[in-house]
């Protein structure tokens, strides 16, 4: 296994550089991320297709991860119930050390070889579900042992890693290898690797929710009405899609039915 993520930075003597030089160099490195993801799109598409299949059949998805990648997966997951109205528990994230300690950098927990499977077992994991491991290095023990146990129990696995031919990818039925190259600060995978992970999480969750029917046209018609800003956005969305011209009328209909989609189904079924 080649640890590209640990190779020396293309830049040196950083402490001698100006602010303008540093930001230009970081931007140059960030520009490589989208290209690396483009190369991995076939793998990403295969993983998403399997996730959609599992969720369509009433299964669940679990991310397991540690460090920056694990924390980013938690942030993605917690947005989904509000943005798409999907019920909590359909898409999940298990973070080394516990998601309730998200703001703590419990990096030592990535060496725990038992916690991931213990947490999955507590969640009653089954072959109806899919588990996706997150590891920039492709060797994180927390993730590796979790995926091994999943495969032993006939549970479909995927992964997102940033080194080729990793031990974690070998345990994944649907591996995604996004090779972003050496980091600007040698070994600091919170940078390009983290950016790539965030972009892929967005791809996975957004594409999956669209395929599951949680989006109409280009609109979040299942968004939860949790604050005034979202209610206003949803009212305007309903007016646009239904042809209702009166704001107060649209708002009343929206609040009566609880979502744009439900309001459209009640008011104008042809729009669904």
Fold topology:
Blueprint: H1 19-39, H2 41-56, E1 61-65, H3 67-84, E2 91-95, H4 115-122, E3 130-135, H5 141-152, E4 156-161, E5 174-177, H6 192-211, H7 228-242, H8 247-257, H9 260-267
Parallel strand pairs: 1-2, 1-3, 3-4, 4-5
Describe this entry's structure for a reader.
Residues 51-214 form the SIS domain. Strand 1, helix 3 (67-84) and strand 2 (91-95) form a beta-alpha-beta unit. Helix 1 (19-39) packs across helix 6 and helix 2 packs across helix 6. The chain has 2 domains: 4-211, 3-Layer(aba) Sandwich (Rossmann fold), CATH 3.40.50.10490; 228-271. A 5-stranded parallel sheet has the order 2-1-3-4-5, sandwiched between helices. It is an alpha/beta fold and 272 residues long. The chain contains 9 helices and 5 strands; from the N terminus they run H-H-E-H-E-H-E-H-E-E-H-H-H-H.
Give a summary of the structure in a few sentences.
It holds the Pfam family GKRP_SIS_N. The protein has 9 helices and 5 strands. The chain has 272 residues and is an alpha/beta fold.
- Summed over residues and divided by their number, the pLDDT gives a mean of 93
- The span between the termini is 50 Å
What is the strand content?
Answer: 5-15%
The spatial strand order of the largest sheet comes to: 2-1-3-4-5
Number of helices: 9
The run of helices and strands is HHEHEHEHEEHHHH
Q: How many β-strand stretches?
A: 5
Secondary structure: helix percent: 40-55%
Question: How many discrete structural domains?
Answer: 2
The CATH class of the largest domain is identified as Alpha Beta
Shape: globular
Would you identify the regions where 5 or more consecutive residues have pLDDT less than 50? none
Could you say which structural class the secondary elements and strand pairing correspond to?
alpha/beta
What CATH architecture of the largest domain do you see? 3-Layer(aba) Sandwich
Radius of gyration: 21 Å
The CATH superfamily of the largest domain turns out to be: Glucose-6-phosphate isomerase like protein, domain 1
| CATH fold-type name of the largest domain | Rossmann fold
Main beta sheet strand tally, sense and closure:
5 strands, parallel
């Amino acid at each position: 296994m080649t640890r590209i993520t640990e190779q020396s930075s293309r830049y040196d003597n950083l402490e001698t550089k100006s602010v303008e030089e540093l930001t230009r160099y970081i931007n140059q490195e960030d520009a490589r991320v989208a290209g690396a993801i483009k190369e991995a799109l076939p793998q990403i598409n295969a993983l998403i297709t399997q996730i959609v299949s599992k969720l369509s059949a009433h299964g669940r998805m679990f991310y397991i991860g540690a460090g920056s990648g694990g924390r980013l997966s938690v942030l993605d997951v917690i947005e989904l119930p509000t943005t798409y109205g999907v019920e909590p528990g359909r898409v999940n994230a298990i973070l080394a050390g516990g998601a309730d300690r998200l703001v703590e950098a419990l990096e030592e927990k990535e060496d725990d070889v038992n916690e991931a499977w213990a947490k999955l077992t507590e969640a009653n994991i089954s072959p109806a579900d899919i588990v996706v491991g997150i590891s920039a290095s492709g060797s994180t023990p927390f993730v590796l042992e979790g995926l091994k146990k999943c495969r032993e129990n006939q549970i479909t696995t995927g992964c997102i890693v940033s080194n080729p031919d990793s031990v974690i990818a070998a345990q994944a039925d649907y591996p995604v290898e996004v090779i972003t190259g050496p980091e600007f600060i040698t070994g600091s995978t919170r940078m390009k690797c983290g950016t790539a992970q965030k972009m892929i999480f967005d791809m996975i969750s957004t594409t999956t929710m669209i395929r599951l029917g949680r989006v109409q046209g280009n609109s979040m018609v299942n968004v939860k009405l949790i604050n005034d800003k979202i209610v206003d956005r949803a009212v305007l969305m309903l007016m646009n899609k239904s042809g209702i011209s009166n704001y107060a009328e649209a708002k009343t209909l929206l609040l009566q039915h609880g979502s744009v989609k439900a309001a459209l189904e009640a008011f104008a079924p042809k729009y669904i």
